[in-house]
Automatic annotation (TrEMBL):
Transglutaminase-like domain sequence ranges: 171-237
Protein name, per record: Transglutaminase domain-containing protein
Lineage of producing organism: Bacteria, Pseudomonadati, Bacteroidota, Sphingobacteriia, Sphingobacteriales
Signal sequence segment: none
SUPFAM superfamilies hit by this protein: Cysteine proteinases
InterPro entries tied to this protein: Bac_transglu_N, Papain-like_cys_pep_sf, Transglutaminase-like
Species of the source: Mucilaginibacter antarcticus
Recorded superkingdom: Bacteria
Length: 325
């Protein structure tokens, strides 16, 4: 069973002291048969109490408030995660029955939310493509793999052409983007075939094998396969998401899985730094993390080549705080 040590550090640096910073964090990896959290340490500036609860989608969510005036806020998560390989679905058993087994899910919680389609200008065009890609004898598993391959081959991985606000309209027109965009397109295609599909955020840990998104925050999709369960599909790399993918959260889309978000009182001027390391030989101690905060706002102290643009969007938006006067 592989084990991965992951350190995820978020730093906010304010132009002037902020106060009453209320935040939500989804930094707690999913725990199930195929993924276990051996250890986790969460350290936050000021050491506020973190209250946790389970949200509607089964994610563990933390919330905290730091009331004292502060010029910076650091949130550090250090985890040791163990994963197990999950066998692939058996894909040739009674295809017609598998499609019949999917039909009742349209009326069942929690699958309803993961079947809800987004209305966008390219809907009919994408729907025609989805129908063209399906053959009569396909199983849901075979369709899911084919859709994953289609996105991988027909959408260009380009950093900086989309943002967190980019809608399906633009992604479909551009045929380009990053892992967040690839996951959103794939979930829409699967839902058009009445296959429940959900968005997943986490990390890909592949020992520097050249995978897009490795050593950083990543995103992919999961499809619900009858008599199997949720199958991870990584269209950015055209692979099954398995023991090298560490899952943080699931939801309908990007916004449901935000690792850090919140509000504060004070000046609107602030900068953000995010660092994610996987199996780092010398991870920072929590004391070093909390103390080593610059007074100015330099560029993020992360090698740009080691970061994908999805991580940068997470830095700028998904983990950004909103200022209140």
């Amino acid at each position: 069973m592989p084990e991965f040590e992951i350190q995820h550090i978020t730093r906010y640096i304010y132009d002037s002291p902020a106060r009453d910073s209320a935040n939500q964090i989804i930094l707690f990896p999913i725990k199930d048969t195929y993924q276990d959290v051996l250890t986790q340490e969460i350290t936050i500036t000021g050491h506020p109490n973190v209250d946790t609860y389970i949200d509607y989608y089964g994610n563990e969510v933390g919330s905290f408030t730091y009331s004292q005036p502060h010029s910076n806020l650091v949130i550090s998560s250090k985890i040791l995660v163990s994963t197990k390989h999950r066998p692939f679905p058996v894909n040739a058993i009674f295809p017609a029955q598998q499609w019949e087994d999917l039909k009742p899910l349209r009326y069942m919680v929690p699958y309803i939310d993961f079947l809800r389609l987004e209305n966008f200008d390219g809907y009919e065009e994408l729907l025609a493509l989805v129908r063209e890609l399906r053959t009569v004898d396909d199983t849901p598993y075979q369709i899911a793999r084919r859709f994953c391959e289609y996105v991988y081959k027909n959408f260009t991985y380009i950093k900086g052409v989309t943002t967190y606000e980019t809608k399906l309209d633009e992604i479909w027109k551009l045929k380009a983007g990053v892992c967040q965009d690839f996951a959103h397109i794939l979930t829409e295609m699967l839902r058009m075939m009445q296959i429940p599909a959900r968005y997943v955020s986490g990390y890909i840990c592949t020992d520097k094998n050249g995978m897009r998104g490795e050593g950083a925050t990543h995103a992919w999709a999961e499809a619900y396969i009858p008599d199997y369960g949720w199958l991870g599909l990584d269209p950015t790399n055209n692979i099954i998401a398995n023991e090298n993918h560490v899952r943080l959260a699931v939801g309908r889309n990007f916004m449901d899985c935000s690792p850090v978000k919140g509000i504060y009182k004070g000046s609107s001027g602030h900068k953000l730094e995010v660092s994610v390391t996987v199996d780092d030989d010398e991870p920072l101690s929590h004391e070093e993390i909390l103390e080593n905060v610059p007074t100015a706002a330099p560029a993020a102290n992360v090698n740009p080549a080691a970061k994908n643009s999805y991580q940068r969007y997470m830095e700028m938006v998904q983990q950004q705080q909103q200022q209140q006067q």
